C-alpha cells in the first residue's frame, strides 16, 4: 500500500453557518475511520488547513470530494507526497480551533500571529500542524 500525505487550505463561504463545521467534523471522522484516513483540521472561522494521510487512492478520492463540496471555497493544495509512515495515526480527524494559545506557533511558521494558511508553504503548513498536534490536546 502506498501512503500519501495531502495538505490543503480553503475558505469557509460566508453563507455557511458555524454549525456546518460540526457537521463537517462529524462526517469526516466517520468517513475517515471507515477509509483508514488520518489527519488534522485547523480552523479559525474563516480558513481551513487540513492534512490527510492514507492510501493514495482513498486520499485522492477524499480530496476530489472536498473540491466539489460547497462548504469549501478557494481550495488550494499546498503539499502532496508519498510518506513512509503516518504522523497523525491516532487522529482520524483531529481538530485544532484557532486560539490565543496557537498565536506563538503561527508566528513561528508564518509572517504573523494570525492564522493565514494561504501564506504558508506546504512544508511550513505541515510543520505547523505537527507542532499544534504536539502542543495541544487532541480534540476528537
General description of the model:
- It is a single chain.
- This protein has helices at 19-35, 56-68, 103-109, 122-135; strands at residues 3-11, 38-43, 47-55, 73-82, 94-97.
- It has 140 residues and is of the alpha+beta class.
- The model has no long low-confidence stretch (mean pLDDT 87).
Give me the number of helical elements. Answer: 4
Strand content: 25-35%
CATH class: Alpha Beta
Number of domains: 1
What is the overall silhouette?
Answer: globular
Which blocks of ≥5 consecutive residues have pLDDT under 50? none
Question: Percent helix among the residues?
Answer: 25-40%
Can you give the mean pLDDT? Answer: 87
Could you please say which CATH topology applies here? Alpha-Beta Plaits
How widely separated are the two ends?
26 Å
Kindly provide the radius of gyration, computed on alpha-carbon positions and rounded to a whole number of angstroms: 14 Å
* Overall number of strands: 5
Can you summarize the main beta sheet? Answer: 5 strands, mixed
- What kind of assembly state do the chains in view correspond to? single chain
Q: H/E order of the elements?
A: EHEEHEEHH
The side-by-side strand order for the widest beta sheet comes to: 4-1-3-2-5
**Overall CATH architecture:** 2-Layer Sandwich
**Which structural class do you get from the secondary structure elements?**
alpha+beta
